[in-house]
Amino acid sequence: MQYSSKVMEHLMNPRNVGELENANAVGMVGNAKCGDIMQMFMVIDDNEVIQEVTFKTFGCGAAIATSSMATELVKGQTIKEALALTNTAVMEALDGLPPVKVHCSVLAEEAIRAALADYYTRKGIDPTPIVGEIKPFGEDDDDHHHDIPEEE
Amino acid sequence: MDKKFVYADNAATTQVDPRVIDKMLPHFSEGYGNASSLYGLGQRAHEAVEEARKKVAAVINAEPKEIFFTSGGTESDNYALRGMMHSRRAGGRKHLITTTIEHPAILQTCKALEKEGFRVTRLPVDQHGLVDLKQLEEAICEDTVLVSIMAANNEIGTIEPIAEIGKLCHDKGVYFHTDAVQAFGHIPLDVKAMNIDMLSLSGHKINGPKGVGAIYIRSGLLLEPFITGGGQEKGRRSGTENVPGIVGLGEAAYLKMTEMEEESTRVRALQRRLIDGVLATIPQATLTGHPTQRLPGNCSFVFAAIEGESLLLFLDHMGVCGSTGSACSTGSLDPSHVLMGIGLAHEVAHGSLRLSLGRFNTEEDVDHILEVLPQVVARLRSMSPVWKD
Q1: Tell me, which fold does domain A5-129 have in CATH?
Q2: Cβ–Cβ of A58/B346 closer than 8 Å?
Q3: Is B381 on the interface with A (CB under 8 A)?
Q4: Which of A31, A39, A60, A137 to mutate to test the interface with B (most CBs of B within 10 A)?
């Protein structure tokens, strides 16, 4: 298993690490049992543009690097644009991930959606029609996504 | 490269001692003969192999004729289990006892044997990784053929009570195999005094070459051949002898034997310095394995709120090589079976780090680790959403 130099670069110099005190959107996904937890903090303005975004991650190299890359990708985007971000796009931006690490990029996508759901919840708007179902934090899913995908 | 580099993964593999390389080199060039050939060139290779056999035997108080060279620890483990179980199958005895914390070379072989219809009992271990003799005694039943328990664990360094296990097996009339890949050359082993019937060992864990190991099989113990062919190794393990590798293994074993006392005293002092330093400078760090019954170089820890793989990558960046039992490093769902075996929760086991010191480590190496590791742990914790001071 080998990481791309882009992954290593984001791991050693992660962008946007930390918490945002004035965040109006915070989401946390993953669980400690599986070994990765991602938390995203956002400041979203009235035009629904993500002005600031930071993360905190407990996890492997790929989890940290995908968190870092995901924050870079959604910074300055509108909510609509951020919701269109897929885990594949995060992976591509990192020049790929080893098959066993694909789930880390899924987690990054979910962390963004969890933060955006929180934004709507705080406004008293039901987030589900906009961002979809969000798995409550810490829930261990039976259908685990650590599995190596079948070769295509 | 002026960056400091510290190799602290000697339980994974070791640097070959230059004295070992010196002994090996002539067997690639002028001494290239086949040990089975009758002319002088072949006979000199044969003599070199027999000389190595004596050296390996001496380390564990075995007879040279009880040592059979293999490709390494994994092959030796495979032979011990498969050879023994297959050879006793006709008598209807089908039971094998091992532990939950063995190396995959044992555990995967047990799985394969189960598919063939053999029965395997995997004994649990306590929080320090020790096997309970009472439980072992209770597990032995009428059709038990073999007990296979490692001499020392590769991840947490715990040394099992091999002499007591050997005596119990001897009294109960079952065979005893020990995977001594981590222990051989590092702690005293005596196959006679400890009632060991079979023992696996490897070259590359003792500052010898990779791709060569050996199995000790007590004289008189009948096992069917493991690899059939030209009849080398008394017909048990055919294939042209890896003469340079065998010579290297012999020399590495000889050096370990003659220097064991001095080296283990020195490495234990480094181990103490590292363990004490880590526990004193890093909050919420825990030593895994036994507090005293452990291999000289093994320093294994868990750190709260961080994950082992990212820890290793950051350490590598700072010039320190170690290893982890976190799930992310194994490519599977679960953290290491050893850390699970000693009862650690998943979330705790994810933060594991093993640093294993050896012959070529110095006090400066330990001090470099003690400088770098607290910084890396603190940095990762500052990124961790689950870290609380």
Answers
A1: Sufe protein. Chain: A (3.90.1010)
A2: no
A3: no
A4: A60
B1 in any annotated domain = no
Nearest 10 degrees: Cα torsion B341, B342, B344, B348: -100
Which residues of chain A does B327 touch, with a Cβ-Cβ cutoff of 8 Å? 34-35, 146
Residue-number span of the structural domain to which B161 is assigned: 18-256
Q: Which residues contact A21 (CB under 8 A, 6 or more apart)?
A: none
B178 and B87 both lie in a single domain: yes
Would you tell me how many other CB atoms lie within 10 Å of the CB of residue B220? 7
Q: Write down which residue in B200, B225, B256 finishes a domain.
A: B256
d(CA B199, CA B220): 15
Comparing CA positions, the residue from B345, B206, B332 lying closest to residue B264 is: B206
A104 is catalytic: yes
**B53, burial (CB in 10 Å: exposed 0-12, middle 13-18, buried 19+):** buried
Distance from CA of B224 to the nearest CA of A (A): 38
In sequence order, what are the residues at sequence separation of 6 or more whose Cβ sits closer than 8 angstroms to the Cβ of residue B234? B65, B68
pLDDT tens track, chain B, 389 positions: 457 999 999 999 999 999 999 999 999 999 999 999 999 999 999 999 999 999 999 999 999 999 999 999 999 999 999 999 999 988 889 999 999 999 999 999 999 999 999 999 999 999 999 999 999 999 999 999 999 999 999 999 999 999 999 999 999 999 999 999 999 999 999 999 999 999 999 999 999 999 999 999 999 999 999 999 999 999 999 999 999 999 999 999 999 999 999 999 999 999 999 999 999 999 999 999 999 999 999 999 999 999 999 999 999 999 999 999 887 666 666 789 999 999 999 889 999 999 999 999 999 999 999 999 999 999 999 999 999 87
Please say which residue of B198, B226, B256 terminates a domain.
Answer: B256
Residue B211 lies in a domain: yes
Are residue B158 and residue B224 in the same domain, yes or no? yes
B294 and B252 within one domain: no
Out of B313, B326, B385, name the one closest to residue A35 (CB): B326
Q: What is the ipTM metric for this complex? A: 0.90
Q: B64 and B170 share a domain?
A: yes
CB pairs under 8 A between A and B: 79
Beta strands in A21-146 (DSSP E): 25-31, 36-44, 50-58
CATH number at residue B106: 3.40.640.10
Residues B209, B292 share a domain = no
Q: Measured on CA atoms in the order A79, A81, A85, A90, is the torsion positive or negative?
A: negative
- Residue B389 resides in a domain: no
